[in-house]
Amino acid sequence: MFGLGVGVLVDRIARRPVLIAADAxxxxxxxxxxxxxxxxxxxxxxLYAVAFVVGTMTVFFDIAYQFYxxxxxxRDRLMEANGKLQMSESVAEVGGPGVAGALIGLxxxxxxxxxxxxxxxxxxxxxxWMPADKPSTPSSGTSLWxxxxxxxxxxxxxxxxxxxxxxxxxxxxxxxx
Length: 177
Prior knowledge:
With 177 residues, the chain is mainly α. It has one domain. 74% of the residues lie in helices and 0% in strands. It contains 6 helices and no strands. 18% of the residues are buried.
């Protein structure tokens, strides 16, 4: 839903602050769940709101990360870095749900979410130590709206395929075309 607009915006600004903000916001949003649970006022609507915020910030993070990594690694090491990151992501996607299910079985979901909060805080702190990047400027001097119009036909062509993709990829579906 937000992929195209986020991609155009992130292409014009420094990416590291976006990465830091996205992780910090995800940590704060997820921290709300155990807090509200312990306080006794957690509702399904709050879970929906947290899921929306976390999902939206994930779109920002994923797109900013795609722009940040090449500048961080350089062209000569980019393929190796992408390979290692893809491997670790695959391991997390395969093993993560099982580990999460086991932990939820031993504890409770709100307690296990604290582990996720800690992971986002750790990522935020690690990103603070990463080198800063510079925002890029559009080569043709196009406006934000012109860039959105230019990318719109590309993203709408891929919308028919969204149903064939896993739900996790739906928010970024338009950003991949």
